[in-house]
Amino acid sequence: MTTKSFQEHFDNQIENEVSIEPRDWMPDDYRKTLIRQISQHAHSEIVGMLPEGNWITRAPSLRRKCVLLAKVQDEGGHGLYLYSAAETLGISRDEMIEQLHSGKAKYSSIFNYPTITWADMGAIGWLVDGAAIMNQVPLCRTSYGPYARAMVRVCKEESFHQRQGYEIMMTLANGTEVQKKMAQDALNRWWWPSIMMFGPSDADSPHTAQSMKWRIKRFSNDELRQKFIDVTVEQAKLIGLTVPDPNLKWNEETGHFDFGEINWDEFWNVVKGNGPCNKERLQARQKAWNEGAWVREAAIAHAQKSKLKAAKNNKQKSETA
Amino acid sequence: MKNIFHRYGDYGDREAAGGENTHHDTSNEWPLWEVFIRSKAGLDHKHAGSLHAADAAMAIENARDVYTRRMEGVSIWVVESKYVHASDPADAEMLYEPANDKIYRHPTFYNLPDELKHM
Known about the structure:
The structure holds 2 protein chains of 2 kinds.
Chain A: H1 3-15, H2 28-47, H3 49-53, H4 62-87, H5 93-102, H6 119-136, H7 145-173, H8 177-196, H9 208-213, H10 221-238, E1 249-251, E2 256-258, H11 264-274, H12 278-291, H13 293-320
Helix pairs in contact in A: 2-4, 4-7, 6-7, 6-8, 6-10, 7-8
Chain B: E1 32-38, E2 45-52, H1 56-67, E3 75-80, H2 92-96
Antiparallel strand pairs in B: 1-2, 1-3
């Protein structure tokens, strides 16, 4: 086949909703876009463990502690599914980790905000995981097979994350005056960063058009953001909390909520590394990686030693037999 | 993409058509393993995903943590990815096309009277 016919075959597969698999021919840019998106997604899961890990020892009850531990463990698992999916495209795990640590690869900016009260665990589960689910459900049908399969797994597990978060918010909202205030404060701080999670608006999103053409993305950033706002506003109402946007208003004509201006300067500022916790998060990842180096080396040495020992034993056995 | 050669057996050997040509040293990485899970007795082991581990014992332990947190399995197989050999998508036509025109291998090919029972 010539390159042209490879391209035609690829286009046909995309057109007919046939998954692209690792050994199929694919355009360079499709591969690069996927590596960028999947690794960024994996990094977000791993860095996302940090703000919540902060609260495991301070969870208010044993039940909450078990749940939070399970959730953080899930995030680690999600990171691993996604790293594996990216590796099928020919990038190595270590390369991706280097890119994260050097700042070349990004992760979701939301994790650069601090978690200062217990209510933040509720807000993150409800809003951050809620926004993530909105983004991830369509990715279960993304055109690259290994990514789609990883996302099916992730989505199955993510639903509990959102529900446990909402439960925390609901409990606080029905609690004492101080607890209710704490819940509202968390919503106030996490609302805008959460709706920024969908990324820049369509007009400023350079990759969207191509990604939609390749069926990597199924909906645009703005479509998903609107969908998230529409459902979440109702969820806030249900527990008596107020979404911190004075311009939020039901629009009978469009059938959606209109909402206020997003502070994109803040968004880009955090993306560029100037958020409240960017440095802290990267330092925590680098520290874990560097301090774990001896464990990785020791495990390899141990595996090699065991292999030699087994080989020696087998030899002796066959000689005495 | 040269670096996937030794991680995925013969995987990727026709990939000259795409990808970055960077050569990255993966010799310090734990090897890659493919994980297969039997979800319950009586069913086949099915490919679940992959992971890195220093040896087979660690691969099984990691697979337990990564792929069976919600009772997804009762048995795990792991195999180092470099031992997986795969057919080439470019050969798909040659390999699978011949089955296309042999519909007589399916029971529905035979038109038999409705009155016929137990068949």
